[in-house]
């Protein structure tokens, strides 16, 4: 049964608001600096070191560790990492613990960003973090460095307003969110748990009610190289791969036809997305290609498990190869290459959600709405594996993973206030 929580008094709210406003130029500069780190997968370390130094400057107790420092691969939910060394993937956990009796809280954000693609297709340079017309533009500005700045500056505002949280807080910046989730998982394995978790992914001030799971897989397809002059005597790995991709497109359509009965995603058109994200293959325009590799991602809905989804992928592949003259005797190799993510639901009715809903309404003067997410986020480990209420709620922006990704800075300011008030409401505050 949820305990009732006293609402944060209006004068405290106004002091927090003033502290955030006074410090907002510094917050924007901080966010700009974060975006300027090109923290692609496997290249997050300089940013993580910089963040650890920022946390130390604030007097927080900082724990830095790599994925090799926990027994990651012993965990049943660890996802394979075939291209990134565990040692190079650094996690940062900053702890503020004044020994108070309030509830504890994890504020977590990821610092890995996806590749920017061809720079000439961006209107502005993707890592300059240009500010224009109230937006900050850049890869990762929205997803999700803005949210990371909001959680850090929410705590700064509490201190500037003359308070400290009355419960233990872990402020965590993690890697691997865009590929496996192993960063978030490693913090839990390291022992960081709390009464609730908030992840300020850019949800546009909505609460992520349910999210899909996802599986990453790679198909390694072979061919028989011959001179194109007698191509009928060879086979093309690229054309074979295209045959398999079409089979997965058909399979996804079947899955989506069944999805209309899903409790959470039934009203959403085609919630299961299949994507071929990387294709490599062949060596020569006049040789039938001997090899092709495609990296794929397939979603799955609440009510199903990654193991079931992986079985479905194996079956789809087997069926597609069975009647193909080449693939039936030269099957593609199937490699599990990343995400084996559970779908997850933020179960309605938690005390943490009630606190966030009350706070949101005060900041935005409208009720907190929820949304179903056809992408994954790190809250799943908290909800599915560790029984910790986890809320995904953050700022507004456009273009995640796209050209000209941007975040609305006024939304970042309001989200910072939401988070500060949520900390006040959830953990309680004490005067400094
Ligand atoms: Zn994200």
Describe the model.
The protein has 432 residues and is α+β, with helices and mostly antiparallel strands. It has helices spanning 10-22, 24-36, 45-57, 141-160, 182-189, 237-258, 306-322, 351-364, 379-385, 409-427; strands at 61-66, 90-96, 105-110, 130-132, 135-137, 163-165, 169-174, 197-199, 207-211, 213-222, 274-281, 291-300, 333-341, 344-345, 370-373, 390-392, 397-398, 406-408, 429-431. The longest helix is centred in the middle third of the chain and has 22 residues, at 237-258. Bound molecules: zinc ion (ZN). Residues 110, 143-144, 177, 201 line the site of zinc ion (ZN). Zinc ion (ZN) binds at residues 110, 143-144, 177, 201.
Poorly predicted runs: none
> What is the element string, with H for helices and E for strands?
HHHEEEEEHEEHEEEHEEHEEHEHEEEHE
Gross geometry: elongated
Biggest sheet strand order reads: 1-2-7-3-8-16
Q: Counting H and I runs of at least 4 residues, what is the number of helices? A: 10
Share in helix: 25-40%
User: DSSP strand (E) fraction?
Assistant: 15-25%
How far is the first residue's CA from the last residue's CA? 31 Å
Count of individual beta strands: 19
**What Rg do the Cα atoms give?**
23 Å
Largest sheet: 6 strands, mixed
| Overall mean pLDDT | 97
- Secondary-structure content class: alpha+beta
Bound ions, cofactors and other small molecules, one mention each: zinc ion
């Amino acid at each position: 049964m949820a305990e009732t929580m006293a609402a944060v008094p209006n004068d405290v709210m106004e002091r927090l608001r003033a502290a955030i406003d006074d410090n907002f130029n510094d917050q924007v500069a901080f966010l700009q600096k974060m975006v300027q780190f090109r923290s692609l997968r496997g290249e997050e370390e300089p940013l993580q070191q910089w963040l650890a130094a920022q946390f130390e400057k604030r007097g927080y107790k900082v724990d830095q560790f790599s994925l090799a420092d926990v027994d990651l691969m012993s965990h049943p939910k660890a996802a394979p990492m075939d291209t990134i060394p565990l040692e190079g993937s650094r996690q940062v956990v900053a702890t503020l613990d004044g020994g108070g009796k309030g509830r504890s809280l994890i504020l977590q954000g990821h610092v890995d960003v996806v590749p920017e693609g061809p720079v000439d297709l961006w209107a502005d340079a993707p890592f300059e973090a240009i500010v224009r017309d109230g937006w900050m533009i850049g890869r990762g500005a929205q997803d999700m460095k803005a949210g990371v700045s909001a959680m850090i500056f929410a705590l700064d505002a509490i201190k500037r307003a003359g308070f400290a949280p009355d419960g233990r807080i872990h402020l965590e910046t993690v890697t691997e969110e865009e590929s496996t989730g192993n960063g978030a998982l490693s913090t839990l394995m390291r022992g960081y748990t709390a009464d609730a978790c908030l992840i300020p992914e850019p949800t546009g001030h909505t609460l992520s009610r349910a999210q899909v799971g996802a599986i990453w897989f790679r198909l390694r397809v072979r061919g028989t190289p011959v001179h194109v002059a007698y191509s009928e005597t060879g086979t093309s790995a690229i054309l074979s791969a295209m045959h398999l991709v079409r089979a997965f497109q058909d399979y996804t359509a079947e899955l989506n036809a069944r999805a209309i009965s899903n409790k959470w995603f039934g009203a959403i058109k085609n919630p299961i997305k299949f994507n071929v994200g990387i294709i490599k293959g062949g060596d020569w325009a006049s040789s039938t290609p001997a090899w092709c590799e495609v990296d794929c991602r397939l979603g799955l809905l609440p009510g199903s498990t990654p193991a079931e989804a992986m079985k479905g992928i194996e079956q789809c592949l087997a069926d597609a190869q069975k009647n193909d003259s080449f693939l039936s005797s030269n099957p593609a190799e199937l490699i599990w290459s990343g995400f084996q993510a559970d779908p997850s639901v933020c179960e309605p009715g938690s005390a943490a959600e009630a606190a966030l809903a009350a706070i949101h309404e005060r900041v935005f003067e409208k009720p907190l709405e929820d949304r179903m997410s056809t992408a994954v986020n790190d809250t799943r480990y908290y909800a599915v594996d560790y029984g910790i209420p986890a809320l995904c709620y953050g700022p507004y922006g456009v273009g995640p993973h796209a050209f000209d990704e941007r975040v609305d800075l006024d939304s970042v300011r309001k989200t910072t206030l939401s988070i500060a008030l949520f900390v006040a409401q959830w953990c309680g505050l004490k005067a400094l």
